[in-house]
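Our preliminary data section would be incomplete without showing what the modeling component actually yields. Below, a chain of 152 amino acids is followed by its predicted structure, encoded as tokens that our downstream tools consume directly.
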Amino acid sequence: MPDNIKAYFSDYKLNLVQILDSDKYTFYNEDVRDVFNIIRNIYNDDFDSIYREYESRNVDIDVMELICNITSVPKLMDLCTDTEQGGTVNMCEAMKRFQAECESKGMKEGIDSEKVNSIISMLEFGITKEQILTKYTKEDLERAEAAIANEN
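Predicted structure:
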């Protein structure tokens, strides 16, 4: 870096954590822990873990918004109608409503588009194709790549 601009930049340490590998880390902030746990379980289609862990406790509404944005599932935020006092939502109830809505409407296309959106998000966050293929099928990955190509 040229000496004449060094003063304008800080050399801060930056830790990067992949969501799918985040279970090996300990997050002391409860909100950060919730974000990583819930997103990892959504990407892994492990809704039972979400139901078990969040059945009797709520998640901050800002945490829920972040989860919806990262996973590209804004519809989940719409299902958080039971906002408690203090700005919290019951994650378990929101997930159950989302799953029930998908099943009741026979939303195969909706579920597939959610998979595609999740894979696109994973690719944007630098998760490798090999890691994605541990959870999703090759066809799901190809649909996501085709969707990215159509956007460009």
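The two ends are 33 Å apart (CA to CA). Residues 59 and 121 are 22 Å apart (CA to CA). Preliminary results of this kind motivate Aim 1 of the renewal.
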